[in-house]
Amino acid sequence: MNYMHLICSFSFFGAAFAFYKIHKLWRKDVTENDKLYKFQIKAGNFKHWIGIIMLIIAGIVYLFKVIG
């Protein structure tokens, strides 16, 4: 078992969770204070979700490296 890949996998999952929490705070702040236009909010949501999904995929890849 490669412990370095296991650490990386858990780090990616932790980063994805933290980024999700930050995204929720950003979304709450933007919608309450009307700081951005609607298309800017949608673009920010898309960009954030792509980042979260990429971190989750990277975590899964490293987890399979540990297993295999």
Which structural class do you get from the secondary structure elements?
A: mainly alpha
Report the span from N to C terminus: 9 Å
- In DSSP terms (H or I, runs of 4 or more residues), the helix count works out at 2
Q: What about the largest sheet? A: none
Briefly, what is this?
The chain has 68 residues and is mainly α.
SSE order and pairing:
Elements: H1 3-33, H2 38-67
Task: Give an account of the 3D structure.
By secondary structure, the chain is mainly α. The protein is 90% helix and 0% strand. It has two helices and no strands. The chain has helices spanning 3-33, 38-67. It starts with a helix and ends with a helix. The mean pLDDT is 90.
Write out key terms for the chains shown.
68 residues, mainly alpha
